[in-house]
């Protein structure tokens, strides 16, 4: 009996929903006799009956509203939406901004429709009245909605004056409206609502600030508002904001303004400084090939790229660029001791690593596996050749590095997989699935995903036990593994070779040392902090590292056959 009642209740609720849906569809198909209040009530119910997530529901409803606005709302779509904006706060504040944004955005496609232009002009006065009501807190709407109304209805000072004075307009009415709006601008400035203040000032030509306001905007990181206000104030203020950008090394923004307002004569060096800055960022990420393409047509920039490579201690890249672009003379002009700063980075010899072993044949694989199985703690990392083609799949993982505190192994996955995939799978399953070995990584889940994508036929990268991602213990640390190394060991990692060609054979000695260091440093970081009471701090709370060890056992697939 209980089940029967439950089914009857479900059927009743389903019928109610279907009936409600039919009412909504009928109403939206013809708005000629549907008031704004009824429309908003139905719209709100549609939202709450929806089963999708909030963003998806709003997106679907917006499409429905767009279609509905073509179905004869009275007296017209623009006036109708303004009327709806008065209704929205009465429905509750929980989703008021979302509904407001959705309705105003739905008008965009109608602004160019000839048949509704009269309604658009008529609605401007009503929209201006709504803006005044929002400013006076009579109708509660968010400031972002206020700004959106001004933009969508293209409200001018005369519209505000007409709504404010309600009579034939004279010069004194425009002045009174501007003064009234100026008071609101000053209020927004005091409350640090700078974006709204700038929107009112630039739209209604209100001048009530000096350069100190620009400094406040930049200080609060309201850069778009700062640029809009500077453009409104004129060339002198644009020059000032460019200078302020240069002072805080915002070279990209400064360069864009210089180009936009044709100020190269006033700032002749900005474009080159920006290009230098871009090359440096690419070099720091190890994207040397991209940096080279960016610098190719400019000898001075190419010399700077060589300088960056020398500064990073990436001498094989220095030699490569010098040979390709005949820059040997430039290198000779530099004083190596003044350029190179390798001492700023952690060097492999400081970790007292006894040996780096290159493994590219089966006997070496078996020997390395036996050694690793006897270790209690290992660091794991992998590398693959970068792919700069947009939208293309990443290249296969080329090497995987596994290090103890004394020895590092670099496995040539490409060759080992080609020679004997079954042996490779068996050996790495012994390592990855061992409950006796703590495997340390930094964002190792990403590496494991890449490994499983590269070698999907192997089971060894589908399952693991005793995995500890060091990154999760130091969420507040910036700069990746290099930043963590600097924090814990006092020196960062030189990442300039990160995006080198890991498929070339043989790898250079520098590449091997880079790869070994990335795995070995994980073990040393762990040893350095394991005994400390505050190992890993997350949001002010001590974190017990053992609770972050994870395992994943995939038993769904049968053993690999070749």
Strands, helices and their partners?
Layout: H1 2-29, H2 36-49, H3 54-68, H4 77-87, H5 96-105, H6 117-135, H7 143-152, H8 157-165, H9 171-190, H10 194-204, H11 211-219, H12 223-233, H13 235-247, H14 251-260, H15 270-284, H16 288-295, H17 299-311, H18 315-325, H19 328-333, H20 336-339, E1 355-359, H21 362-373, E2 377-384, E3 397-403, E4 407-412, H22 413-419, H23 421-432, E5 438-441, H24 444-454, E6 464-469, H25 480-489, H26 509-530, E7 537-538, E8 541-542, E9 549-552
Parallel strand pairs: 1-4, 2-5, 5-6
Antiparallel strand pairs: 2-3, 3-4, 6-9, 7-8
Helix pairs in contact: 1-2, 2-4, 3-5, 4-6, 5-7, 6-8, 7-10, 8-9, 9-10, 10-12, 11-12, 11-13, 12-13, 13-14, 14-15, 15-16, 15-17, 17-18, 21-23, 25-26
The main sheet orders its strands as 1-4-3-2-5-6-9
Strand content: 5-15%
CA-CA gap between termini? 59 Å
- Mind summarizing the main beta sheet? 7 strands, mixed
Which ranges are low-confidence, i.e. pLDDT below 50, for 5 or more consecutive residues?
1-26, 533-543
Please report the number of helical segments. Answer: 26
Roughly how many Å is the radius of gyration? 33 Å
Global structural class:
alpha/beta
Q: Name the helicity range.
A: 55-70%
Oligomer state of the chains in this structure: single chain
Shape: elongated
Mean pLDDT across residues: 85
What is the number of E strands? 9
